[in-house]
Specification:
The complex is a heterodimer of chains A (549) and B (327). Chain A is 36% helix and 23% strand. By secondary structure, chain A is of the alpha/beta class. In chain A, the strands form four sheets. A six-stranded mixed beta sheet of chain A has the order 6-7-8-3-9-10. Chain A has a six-stranded mixed beta sheet with strand order 16-17-18-13-19-20, sandwiched between helices. The longest helix of chain A is centred in the middle third of the chain and has 18 residues, at 187-204. The longest helix of chain B has 39 residues, at 182-220. Classes of the chains: A alpha/beta (549), B mainly alpha (327). The A-B interface holds A 55-57, 85-90, 93-94, 96, 98, 101-107, 115-116, 119-120, 151, 153, 164, 167, 288-293 and B 4, 7-8, 11, 15, 222-224, 226-234, 237, 241-242, 245-246, 319-322, 326-327. Chain B: It is a multi-pass membrane protein. Chain B: Pfam families: BPD_transp_1, BPD_transp_1_N.
Chain lengths: 549, 327
């Protein structure tokens, strides 16, 4: 079979001052008709570069240095712009990561899809309308007639991604490039979108170049896999071969960092008095409302109750909008709850004013999601860590001494003390975030999606660190997480939330192996690549599981 | 228009009326707080300084009454849309303002449209030629006009185009004594309009140009622009169909602000160019301590600001479907 698209010796130069000279170096691969090729890599691996070069979407400062991309006898690198435009959106099309921003907010859905016909075909207005309508039906959008005149903000993330797919497939292209199309979506939505892409791909025999960082997704849909590391292509092969018998050390490292979907047996904790008790916590958000209109009310926490014990990791899992972050923020009193009780040990803290709360703040500390936004860029690492204890009355010299000890604890060099956050990577910053939280010697650590902004190999390191610290310092950890693979590995117990309510709670292993609530079942069933590394696979994957455990 | 939209507009009008009333009271005290006595000014102009005459004048205009009573009279007349009589011309304030309104609206309206058109156009060109000489030229020019004081610019323009080149008239709205009619009169007014409108519009032209440019450059980096390029659109089409509409949203906000000043914002220009509009009326009223007239001009200006705020919000909701008129 002749390849549809051929990438040969492609090198793309980065502008001066970047962290490396080339975004990608000597990349070679082919895309066969009707196959799904997954391009996998961590952030900064250059995995999207080739796709952008194909689509003419490279920023002006970034130039193809050498190599060729051959499609249908044309070299897309050197092709004149007006010819390339005839291919773009017509014979090769692309969908993007962020469905929230990838559509023009001011244009109706039908107009945005219809534009593709307007540019590439001679169809009449009526024909365009009909074709658009049938596309919306094909991608499974509810009430397509009404969808036609909707604006993007009226659609959910999943629906918007369906619109993007409809737009991309409008002219039945021979190649669809999907750049992390499900990364921003919830797990159940992700499962639906992956299924849709697969179905449409089979129906139209489209070749798909699927860019992702998630090996679960690879296991779910790939035929062949390309693995990228720092601009180099390190591995290329069939899905089964790459996933279960990786050759390159980097691929092995990446795959072993993917948490298996089997909750390990965990020792039962000795009975003890809870360090944190939450009783019937309620929090509603209301938006809008004024002189003449009623506000819109969303129940972010609805009758939420749980206990947390020393030495325990309690996972708060759920999709976006489930209220898991709201609960964690109410617990540390970053948000005020409407009603309910929050007890630290035996002390109720939900009604204390700022002054009375201050001594309790030490006992419960938080690690935030975004390591880039959660550290003050104008303060040194030492100041960031020591600030809390100083505010609580510790002498400055002693607080700085403590900051140095904490840096050692989170495995950062002591030289970091006088440096600023921008000098550190995401994983290192998250270590600083943890050190800052530990500066108060808390009993409880609340980690709000503390690893979701990190690459998978870094994730594993941070999880490992939290686990170690928990044991060494006998902490109680409240772990807010949307990634069920992670939850399965690190939590002793999990609470599953949906629309502000707890739908299921229990020992992790039990919840994963015998989920009772339908929602939990659908969540678990939606995890991409659930069969891979679930204990059902054999051979190499098994040994990897051991290595991970 | 949906029932919610009408309810919203109704609600805003009621709120606006309350705001205006508060402003009216505030204006009343503000004017009384300034030193000066209208009776003395009028008596001075009449060449009489006799105390009895002054007393008579004060009685005539109710200025001898206690302040709270004067306020009561003013407000209770105002809610019946009666703004009183001017001290000097002895005309109803409202009629006098309406008499001057067309001249001001012509000037400010022309300046408004001109600045919006040229400013946005210059901004788009600058953004498209980002980091090229056209961009630098527009950016620097905009900065200069943005920073130059209006009155100085007005005088220099009059000096250069009228006195030195003798191309354009330097004052007034029509050629005095020419008695032109029809199309000739239109041309005459237009030639008189060019200098003041250009001077008045220059500042906002600069503001619009800078804002459009920044907004265009920012919008170009957005994801949906990438989507548009990936569809195979030509760069021009991407710019006009996708970038420009989104980039104009902040410009609408600013245009709303400028539109609010359509009545009260031309005092300097009208004074320099002797344009017979409301701005000059206000300027004169200020010197004559003509309280009623001043209050009237203030009130109409405030009403315009409130009104144009509402109109801006309605327009915003039309151009941006994400915004609903329901708060």
């Amino acid at each position: 079979m002749k390849p549809l698209l051929k990438v040969e010796n492609l090198s793309i130069r980065l502008p001066k001052g970047a962290d490396r000279e080339f975004a990608i170096t000597n990349v070679n691969y082919e895309l066969m008709p009707g196959e799904i090729l997954c391009v996998v890599g961590e952030s900064g691996s250059g995995k999207s570069m080739t796709a952008n070069a194909i689509m003419g979407l490279l920023p002006k400062a970034i130039q193809v240095e050498t190599g060729a991309i051959t499609f249908d006898g044309y070299d897309l690198v050197s092709l004149e712009e007006h010819r390339a435009r005839k291919i773009r959106g017509n014979r090769i099309s692309m969908i993007f990561q962020e469905p929230m921003t990838a559509l023009n907010p001011l244009m109706r859905v039908a107009d945005q899809i219809g534009e593709v016909f307007l540019i590439h075909t001679e169809l009449s207005k009526k024909q365009r309308h009909e074709r658009t309508l049938s596309l919306l039906k094909d991608v499974g959008l509810p009430d397509p007639e009404k969808m036609m005149s909707a604006y993007p903000h009226q659609l959910s993330g999943g629906q918007r991604q369906r619109v993007m797919i409809a737009m991309a497939l409008a002219l039945e292209p021979s190649i669809l490039i999907a750049d992390e199309p499900t990364t921003a979506l919830d797990v159940t939505t992700q499962a639906q979108i992956l299924k849709l892409i697969k179905e449409l791909q089979e129906k139209h025999n489209t070749a798909v170049m699927f860019i992702t960082h998630d090996f679960g997704v690879v296991a779910e849909i790939a035929d062949r896999v390309v693995v990228m590391e720092k601009g180099q292509m390190v591995e290329l092969g069939e899905r089964e071969a790459v996933l279960n018998n990786p050759q390159h050390s980097y691929t092995k490292k990446l795959i072993s960092a993917v948490p298996p979907l089997v909750a390990p047996e965990r020792p039962l904790l000795a009975e003890s008095a809870p360090v944190l008790t939450v009783n019937q916590l309620c929090k509603t958000y209301s938006t809008g409302g004024g002189w003449f209109s009623k506000p819109r009310i969303v129940k972010a926490a609805d009758d939420v109750s749980f206990e947390l014990h020393r030495g325990e990791t309690l996972g708060l899992v759920g999709e976006s909008g489930s209220g898991k972050s709201t609960v964690s923020r109410c617990v540390v009193r970053l948000l005020e709850s409407d009603s309910g009780e929050i007890l630290l040990g035996d002390d109720p803290i939900q009604a204390l004013d700022a002054k009375a709360l201050a001594p309790f703040r030490k006992r419960i500390q938080m690690v935030f999601q975004d390591p880039f936004a959660s550290l003050n860029p104008r303060k040194t690492i030492g100041q960031i860590i020591a600030d809390g204890p100083i505010a609580q009355g510790m002498p400055v010299a002693q607080a700085m001494q403590k900051a140095a000890e904490l840096l050692a604890l989170v495995e950062l060099p002591a030289t970091a003390l006088d440096r600023y956050p921008h000098e550190f990577s995401g994983g290192q910053r998250q270590r600083v975030g943890i050190a800052r939280a530990l500066a108060h010697d808390p009993e409880i650590l609340v980690a709000d999606e503390a690893i979701s902004a990190l690459d998978v190999s870094v994730q594993a390191q941070i999880l490992d660190l939290i686990e170690q610290l928990k044991q060494r310092l006998n902490l109680a950890v409240l772990f807010v997480v949307h990634d069920l693979r992670v939850a399965a590995q690190v939590c002793d117990r999990v609470i599953v939330m949906q629309k502000g309510r707890i739908v299921e709670a229990g020992v992790t292993k039990q919840v994963f192996e015998q989920p009772r609530h339908d929602y939990t079942k659908s969540l678990i069933a939606s995890i991409p690549g659930a069969d891979w590394r679930s204990g059902k696979t054999t051979g190499h994957a098994k040994t990897l599981e051991k290595a991970y455990a | 228009m949906s029932i919610q939209t009408l309810m919203y507009i109704g609600g805003r009008l009621i709120k606006g009326a309350i705001v205006l009333l508060v402003i009216a009271v505030f204006n009343f005290f503000l004017i009384r707080a300034a030193p000066g006595d209208p009776a003395k000014v009028m008596a001075g102009e009449a060449g009489a300084t006799d105390e009895l005459f002054l007393q008579q004048l004060r009685e005539q205009f109710g200025l001898d009454q206690p302040l709270y009573y004067q306020l009561w009279v003013y407000i209770s007349n105002l809610v019946q849309f009666d703004m009183g009589i001017t001290y000097r011309q002895q005309m109803p304030v409202f009629d006098l303002i309406m008499d001057r309104m067309p001249a001001t609206l012509l000037l400010t309206g022309a300046a408004f449209l001109l600045s919006l058109l040229i400013g946005v156009l210059a901004g788009v060109v600058a953004a498209q030629k980002h980091k090229q000489w056209a961009d630098s030229f527009i950016t620097v020019a905009a900065l200069i006009f943005y920073a130059t004081p209006l009155f100085w610019l007005a005088m220099m323009a009059a000096l250069f185009f009228s006195v030195y080149l003798n191309w354009l008239p330097s004052f007034g709205m029509e050629t005095v004594g020419a008695n032109l009619t029809g199309f000739d009169r239109f041309i005459d007014i237009m030639t008189h309009l060019i200098l003041p409108a250009a001077t008045l519009g220059l500042f906002f032209t600069a503001v619009y140009a800078r804002m459009t440019r920044a907004s265009m450059i920012e919008t170009t980096r957005m994801d949906f622009v990438k989507t548009a390029i990936a569809k195979g659109m030509t760069p021009n089409r991407v710019t006009y169909r996708h970038v420009l509409r989104n980039a104009l949203l902040p410009v609408v906000t600013l245009a709303g602000l400028q539109a609010g000043q359509l009545i009260g914002g031309a005092v300097l220009t009208e004074t320099v160019f002797a344009w017979p509009g409301i701005g000059r009326l206000m300027f004169e009223a200020l010197f004559q301590r003509d309280y009623n007239l001043l209050l009237g001009v203030f009130f109409i200006s405030s009403a315009m600001v409130v009104l144009f705020n509402l109109i801006t919000d309605v327009i915003y909701c039309v151009v941006d479907p994400r915004i609903e008129l329901s708060k």
